[in-house]
Design goal:
Elements (H helix, E strand, L loop, with lengths): L3 E10 L2 E6 L2 E6 L2 H4 L8 E10 L4 E6 L2 H10 L7 H10 L2 H10 L2 H5 L6 H16 L4 H6 L2 H11 L4 H11 L6 H16 L1
Parallel strand pairs: 3-5
Antiparallel strand pairs: 1-2, 1-4, 2-3, 4-5
Helix pairs in contact: 2-3, 4-6, 8-9, 8-10, 9-10
Length: 194
């Protein structure tokens, strides 16, 4: 399976983009939460990926964070939820907001996402409640980067996914710990609001 891609963006048309890696152009579909904070065409990007093999196609899905990819993988295991609905969910609601809806049993919020009806929303709540309540495995925690951990923390604090990504991007390059990234991102947000 293809676990990640790093290359140059050749084209972007929501929700699809083409990433050139070593001369090969990979067509990737991504949720809007990932798509809207991608760099410009021609810039380098790194995406975590999930490959779905169907009878008629192999479709590669790309995600900015491990949390998004993990939720996508959990969603497509739910009966009646395919990659298209999973992408719509990730495009219409943040990972933390989705978890909150599931824990509160708020099917009305989920039905606001295009393609998600009442029955699907109720099925998502029933099937995802246990999966989301399960503690994160040490292997997943060890594999996540400081950036993705900081992103998850900002989203958990109530920042929209695109806003969290923008704040982290503003911190700039460098090797920062998760705590340092969060602190600098929050300082940037405080400067913007004042």
């Amino acid at each position: 399976m293809i676990g990640s891609l790093r290359g140059r963006i050749l084209s972007k048309t929501p929700p699809q983009l083409t990433v050139e890696v070593a001369g090969l152009g990979y067509e990737v579909e991504s949720p809007l939460s990932t798509y809207f904070h991608l760099p410009a065409v021609g810039a380098e990007v790194q995406l975590l990926t999930h490959l779905v093999v169907r009878e008629d196609a192999h479709v590669l899905y790309g995600f900015a964070t491990e949390e998004e990819r993990r939720l996508f993988r959990s969603l497509i295991k739910v009966s009646g939820v395919g990659p298209k609905i999973a992408l719509a969910l990730l495009s219409g609601i943040s990972v933390s907001a989705f978890a909150d809806c599931v824990q509160r049993g708020d099917s009305a919020a989920l039905t606001r996402v295009p393609g998600v009806g009442r029955k699907t929303a109720e099925r998502l709540i029933v099937e995802m409640r246990d999966r989301l309540a399960a503690p994160e495995t040490p292997a997943l925690a060890a594999g996540s980067s400081a950036e993705s951990e900081a992103y998850g923390a900002l989203v958990a604090l109530g920042y929209r996914p695109a806003e969290a990504s923008r704040l982290l991007k503003a911190v700039g390059p460098g090797t920062h710990s998760t705590e340092e990234l969060i602190r600098r991102a929050l300082q940037g947000a405080a400067r913007e609001s004042s």
